[in-house]
Amino acid sequence: MQTRREFLLTAAGAALIVGAPVLARAADIRNMPSQATAITQVFGDGVKLIAVALEYPDVISTSILNAGDFSVTGRTVSQVFTAQSIGLTPADSGKFVIVRLVETDADTSLQEDVYEGDPEEAKPQIQGGKPNWVAGQKMKKTIRFKEASADVSVKGKMLSTSATRNLIADSFRQAEFADEETGKTLKYNLFIPDNTNQTLPLVLFMHDAGVTSEQTKATLYQGLGAIIWADPAEQTKRPCYVLAPQYDEIIADDDWRTSKYLETTIHLIQKLIREHKIDPKRIYATGQSGGCMTAIAMNIKYPKFFAASYLVAGKWNPDIVIPMAKNKVWWMASEDDLGAFPSFNAITEQLAKQGTKINRAVWNGKWNADQYRFAYDDLTSTHAQMYYTVFVKDSVFRETDSRQGASGHRNTWRIAYTIEPIREWLFEQTKN
């Protein structure tokens, strides 16, 4: 029979075991996790499956993990670590094991094409050097993004993902705006910052024609144009609202026509200003390709609406841009872009004739962050109303990129939104 002392010692030991977190030993990892979640992240060239989060019933220590016990079908594992939540932040221990994947694995794109009728008929017909797209019309080819999924082997036992966590993209809210003035209903994504008690700026991002889609989140998954402004690190430095409309028709064409969505987008911003603490003097516009063209058209039609604009790889008729001569604009193109480069040259020359001071520079798409910072400091050391930077020929391509077709065009915005000093410049601008 136990003595009172033995009983108290035994009870105290049991209490310590129950009260403290249990770190699973190597032998315990033979138990299958209860759930697997696919983790995606958006890069300059689109959304990718970058990790799988395995949830365990007990806390596990990273020190006892063996990366060789984990594999993902068709992918290369780069790292295995524990975490306290679904994400990419390592911890010494946690109930989640994160299986990190190599981002450069082949065929990782989640984008798929959707055709209305014959795929051959959906190809743009080039007439007079330009596609026969017409603003306001639906496209016969649109895109959508598949839900990420993966099959994971844990010590030889298979488990399929049953949920998806899209980093940053999931922080946007989806909604629709029915515009009584234009009769159009616009789907959109809105990021609302944490500090809603403070009056903050709003960034409007408009996607290119290639992302014309019925899928509301397509503009978020296609590249960094919308996502970058909502990144937690970016929000710490430059908190703001981010509006990313999803257009289901061509919004601007090569005959300088625009869809009614142009006015609808302006009306939506006006509505959001009334509903949220958004600073009307700090509304910023940015867009790539067709979205850039629409932003130019907005600057022409509503020259006093935006505090500043970052215009990436677009084009417009230089004969009609004079109303935006007093606006603050950063232009970005590549010498490999046979549409945007000559068009931006003509536009900025026309604006310079109106007395607009424009500082110009040739940059390299392969520079690192410090090199962009030095180049930015040099370019802006003399104040100007507009800045025009061009990626030197061949610098926007990676080793695996084709040089054919519109590759020089698309690769411009793969890089353009990663350059932090330009984002800083945008936020320094305020409407008078």
UniProtKB/TrEMBL annotation:
Cross-referenced Pfam families: EstA_Ig_like
InterPro entries: AB_hydrolase_fold, EstA_Ig-like_N, Plant_Biomass_Hydrol_Est, TAT_signal
Keyword set, alphabetical order: Signal
Family matches, as PROSITE patterns: TAT
Keyword Zinc: no
Residue intervals of the Esterase Ig-like N-terminal domain: 36-112
Superkingdom: Bacteria
Keyword set includes Nucleotidyltransferase: no
Protein name (Swiss-Prot/TrEMBL): PHB depolymerase family esterase
Species of the source: Exercitatus varius
